[in-house]
Amino acid sequence: MPRPIQATIHTAALQHNLGRARASAPDALAWAVVKANAYGHGIERVFEGLRAADGFALLDLSEAERVRALGWRGPILLLEGVFEPRDLELCSRLGLWHAVHCDEQIDWLAAHKTQAPHRVFLKMNTGMNRLGFTPERYRSAWARLNALTQVDEISFMTHFSDADGPRGIAHQMAAFQTATQDLPGEKSVCNSAATLRHAVDARVRGDWVRAGIVLYGGAADHPEHTAAHWDLQPSMTLSARVIAVQHVQAGDTVGYGSAFTADAPLTIGVVACGYADGYPRHAGTGTPVLVNGVRTRVVGRVSMDMITVDLTPVIDAGVEAGFGAEATLWGRAANGTVLPIDDVAYAAGTVGYELMCALAARVPVAVA
Fold first, then answer.
1. Which residues are catalytic?
2. For 180-258, where are the E strands, in sequence order?
3. 160-206 pLDDT per residue, tens
4. Fewer CB in 10 Å around end: N or C, the chain?
5. Cβ pair 232, 211 in contact under 8 A
6. Residues contacting 179, CB < 8 A, separation 6+
7. Helix (H) or strand (E) holding 230
């Protein structure tokens, strides 16, 4: 039989979470962001759950080809634009919309031979300082694009650095609104955090919101708010089985480096999941896990193929926790109990995005 580990992608949860993003940004169109292979879920696996979106946003041309191959005929946006001039040929052939964030991309468009003008999203750097034209240079970049026969419609885009925190978005919105004042075109400014926290304001939400982590059941502003606070459902469950049980006494150690020492008699379960499956190696003792739906903890170091968990709280709760017991590393257990991926990530000192994207190719994936 195959090794007892599996990831499950929940179609109904994707549909629900897209609905929550829409409800947070009434009247706006919604991009479903499927970059990084749909945040590790697999583009083909999430397509049915997200096909009610108004468009798909991603980075790679190969991913755009996959979305078109699934039969999608609506908008597809390249969030970082093209990376070399010949990419524009594929944009023409597939009808891709693309960001423009630097002078070189405008130069490539000016030299591009096409019969179908391109829809572009001109990006402004309002303080993130990654991609985009500064507010001072933005209107001149727009004027260059607007003069090109290769360009049809120009939309406007920026990205918030602090939508998930106390600094907020006001300083960036002010710069964006000043630089785009009186320029014709649709606007896209809200990422997941801004969609949930700020898009109720029509001046903020613009014409398009970019729903990313919200689609996959992660709270963009965790730990201030949880997924439950935003009424989000986990789109991915990673589960495995207990493949061995050990009984240790006070003073016994567990795992590599003897990183955990028992202070009382404990029952330890060995779970068929490790860092080679995408579980974070830096998840230390205390990282939450469910065993047969009961919350307990990881103990000791994560190894390549196994983790060790404390079964004692499960047994004390009167729940069976022996060989073959279900271990839910994140997501929804068989009894319906949810372990938010954000809780696991927070305990491991990272973010839920990383855990999703790190799911290893060797883990079998089912779609439910």
1. 35, 256
2. 187-190, 208-211, 236-248, 253-254
3. 999 999 999 999 999 999 999 999 999 999 999 999 999 988 888 99
4. N
5. no
6. 124, 135, 138, 139
7. none
User: What kind and span of H or E run contains 151?
Assistant: strand 151-158
Q: How many CB atoms lie within 10 A of CB 52?
A: 13
DSSP code at position 30: E
Q: Are 296 and 333 in contact (CB under 8 A)?
A: no
Task: Report whether 180 contacts 154 (CB < 8 A).
Answer: no
Is 210:123 a contact under the CB 8 Å cutoff? no
- Percent helix, percent strand, percent coil in the chain, to nearest 5: 30, 25, 45
CA angle 283–352–50, rounded 5-degree value: 150
The 10s digit of each residue's pLDDT in 230-274 is 999 999 999 999 999 999 999 999 999 999 999 999 999 999 999
Beta strand 187-190 with 151-158 is parallel
CB distance 100 to 137 below 8 Å? no
Cα torsion through 196, 201, 203, 209, rounded to 10 = 20
**pTM of this prediction?**
0.96
Predicted pLDDT at 1: 78
Structure tokens belonging to residue 320: 């069976």
Q: Which three-class secondary structure state does DSSP give residue 148? A: coil
Looking at the predicted structure, is the pLDDT value of residue 149 above 90? yes
For helices 11-24 and 43-50, angle between their N-to-C axes, nearest 10 degrees: 50
Q: Indicate the residue type of 203.
A: R
- Nearest-angstrom CA–CA distance, 133 and 155: 14
